[in-house]
Amino acid sequence: MAATETQFPPPKVLTYPASAPPSLVTQGAEGRLYKTTHLVPDRPCALKYRPPKPYRHPILDARLTKTRLASEAKVLERCWREGVPVPAVYVMDPAAGWMMMEWIDGHPVRVGINEWLGERPEEEGETETETPKPADEEPLVDLMRRVGAAVGALHRTGVVHGDLTTSNMMLRPREDAGQANGSTTGVDGVVDDKAKAVGGDVVLIDFGLATQSMSDEDRAVDLYVLERAFASTHPRAERLFATLLESYGSTFKKAPSVLVKLEDVRMRGRKRSMLG
Amino acid sequence: MDITKKKRRIALGCEGSANKLGIGVILHEGDLTDPSTCTSTVLSNVRHTFVSPPGTGFLPKDTAHHHRAFFARIAKQALADAHLSISDIDCICYTRGPGMGAPLTSVAIAARTLALLWGGKPLVGVNHCVGHIEMGRAITGADHPVVLYVSGGNTQVIAYAEQRYRIFGETLDIAVGNCLDRFARALAISNDPAPGYNIEQLAKRGGRVLLDLPYAVKGMDCSFSGILTRAEELAAQMKQANGGGGGGKGPDGEPFTGADLCFSLQETVFAMLVEITERAMAHVGSGQVLIVGGVGCNERLQEMMGAMAADRGGSVYATDERFCIDNGIMIAHAGLLAYETGFQTPIEDSTCTQRFRTDEVFVKWRK
């Protein structure tokens, strides 16, 4: 990560003197995520920055950056108010293209699941041999239930995420979980204890593509995206996806009809044959 | 003789899925068992375009009539340019789809006729989109690019994986070229040589203001019909203003011109295309972009794509109008690649279809 830091100029807000220098966490197609502090040196926060796109007309670029950031903040605020586990928004400057929000400790659900399954996700070529079923996979099953419940809570408030993957969910260690320091490893850090790897509270992150919608169709597509992402990221845990859906189905009144709609979406696939 | 053993392989390709009739001849040389020795040479590339009057589009019936009327002339020209005799040609390739029904049918029948007339040459039906992609790769040397395919009938972001060109994003309604063509009709911009080209030239005189148009991107998909509606409304406002009716003011309070509209439309739709391409690049982890299709010869689009690619440390590959715009040579090239792997379309199956998705083709010739 350190090598990439110098590659991009940071946003102006990060150029002021600080007790701890900001660090670049990830770089996506949309923007960059920095870790820095908010108001006091011991309160870490995440700063999401959408840099100007050199190819876009400046007026169009400013308009898009502003409206997208504002809508992301609006969605996050709505979720936070309704008790959906999402990071809290601290402060933002839509015109400058950045938003500061709560730093979520822990690691992504993807890392937790892979840790539990005891495999590195990068290693391909392994044949799909049937792994012996662990004697007690209850902690993993429970994680699937918690993910289902978190997605259900999100949909209940009328928000669809737009890009649900196991990378866009964090596992925040519980403060009362014995170890006070919890897991403070980085985003891709390695967690040694298997049970601890899949423990903690599920927090949904990255609402860059989120929209407000109450329709069964949009919710079902959201689940379908997660299902496909899950199957390609964790082929060995695919069978547990049913647990996730089962848990989702009991979170709000209209959830069962979303699951019925999901069947349609699966049958149809994402793309239809079209002619311009 | 077995085609895989031949050192020189020649195909004739016939394209006519829209308003261009193109016939070309390509030569593949080298040993098929060692791809590094294989080269492609364009022997001829002849095209004739059906141009409709300003304010109108090309209708299937008239376009098919154009193709029928010109086919023999263009085919003779292509053979003469290539300095070949009929016996040198190994196979006849034609566009199987997607495209407009009537023009596709005319060219499919003509290709079939050639095959029979010339002593039973094998026929190869080619997917038009795959033709564009393979030609773009051959001309630019882009090896594993994310492909933006933009034309009058198609708008897709494509990347190759496991024997198929997979569609990562596409338009949810009309194609970007269709949006530009229909907008050109609203302003009665000439269709000669192409409406998109004339919009591009007119846009160079605009740029004083950027008019507010909808921007519709959803993940890696996009939509153009709302933008077209709004652009047509603005064009109508402008006409009213020119007639002394008032209205049609830009953000600076001054009346806007057709050039301003062309500029704003290009800036908006191209920004959308570059954005979905960038997302696909981030998704598949590729640094190369290849732009193919008729809209791909727009230099402003190439410039914007270049700026995005440079920002990501990658590069953009594009071709000029000879290969971007529909042509016969791309059908010959993609068809010959398939033919070299043993693919053929038996004459009784040599149909064509308006709907033929890019990812339906099994790409046997790539690793």
Automatic annotation (TrEMBL), chain A:
InterPro entries: Kinase-like_dom_sf, Prot_kinase_dom, Tyr_kinase_AS
Enzyme Commission identifier(s): 2.7.11.1
Family membership noted in the UniProt record: Belongs to the protein kinase superfamily. BUD32 family.
Entry's Gene Ontology cellular component terms: chromosome, telomeric region; cytosol; EKC/KEOPS complex; nucleus
Organism: Chaetomidium leptoderma
PANTHER family to which the protein is assigned, alphabetical: EKC_KEOPS COMPLEX SUBUNIT TP53RK (PTHR12209:SF0), NON-SPECIFIC SERINE/THREONINE PROTEIN KINASE (PTHR12209)
Name of this chain's protein: EKC/KEOPS complex subunit BUD32
Main location: nucleus
Domain of life according to the entry: Eukaryota
UniProt KW keywords: Activator, ATP-binding, Chromosome, Cytoplasm, Hydrolase, Kinase, Nucleotide-binding, Nucleus, Phosphoprotein, Serine/threonine-protein kinase, Telomere, Transcription, Transcription regulation, Transferase, tRNA processing
Role description: Component of the EKC/KEOPS complex that is required for the formation of a threonylcarbamoyl group on adenosine at position 37 (t(6)A37) in tRNAs that read codons beginning with adenine. The complex is probably involved in the transfer of the threonylcarbamoyl moiety of threonylcarbamoyl-AMP (TC-AMP) to the N6 group of A37. BUD32 has ATPase activity in the context of the EKC/KEOPS complex and likely plays a supporting role to the catalytic subunit KAE1. The EKC/KEOPS complex also promotes both telomere uncapping and telomere elongation.
Example GO biological process: tRNA processing
All residue ranges annotated as the Protein kinase domain in the record: 19-276
Catalysed reaction, written as an equation: L-seryl-[protein] + ATP = O-phospho-L-seryl-[protein] + ADP + H(+); L-threonyl-[protein] + ATP = O-phospho-L-threonyl-[protein] + ADP + H(+)
Subunit and interaction comment: Component of the EKC/KEOPS complex composed of at least BUD32, CGI121, GON7, KAE1 and PCC1; the whole complex dimerizes.
GO MF terms, alphabetically ordered: ATP binding; hydrolase activity; protein serine/threonine kinase activity
Automatic annotation (TrEMBL), chain B:
InterPro entries membership: ATPase_NBD, Gcp-like_dom, KAE1/TsaD, Kae1_archaea_euk
Keywords, ordered alphabetically: Acyltransferase, Cytoplasm, Metal-binding, Nucleus, Transferase, tRNA processing
Residues holding substrate: 149-153, 181, 196, 200, 298
Keyword Transmembrane listed: no
Catalytic EC class: transferase
Keyword Ribonucleoprotein: no
Reaction catalyzed: L-threonylcarbamoyladenylate + adenosine(37) in tRNA = N(6)-L-threonylcarbamoyladenosine(37) in tRNA + AMP + H(+)
Principal location: cytoplasm
EC number: 2.3.1.234
Gene3D superfamilies: 3.30.420.40
Positions with a binding annotation for a divalent metal cation: 128, 132, 149, 326
Stored Pfam families: TsaD
Subcellular location(s) of the protein: Cytoplasm; Nucleus
GO CC annotations, alphabetized: cytoplasm; EKC/KEOPS complex; nucleus
Annotated family: Belongs to the KAE1 / TsaD family.
NCBIfam families: gcp_kae1
Annotated protein name in UniProt: N(6)-L-threonylcarbamoyladenine synthase
Species of the source: Chaetomidium leptoderma
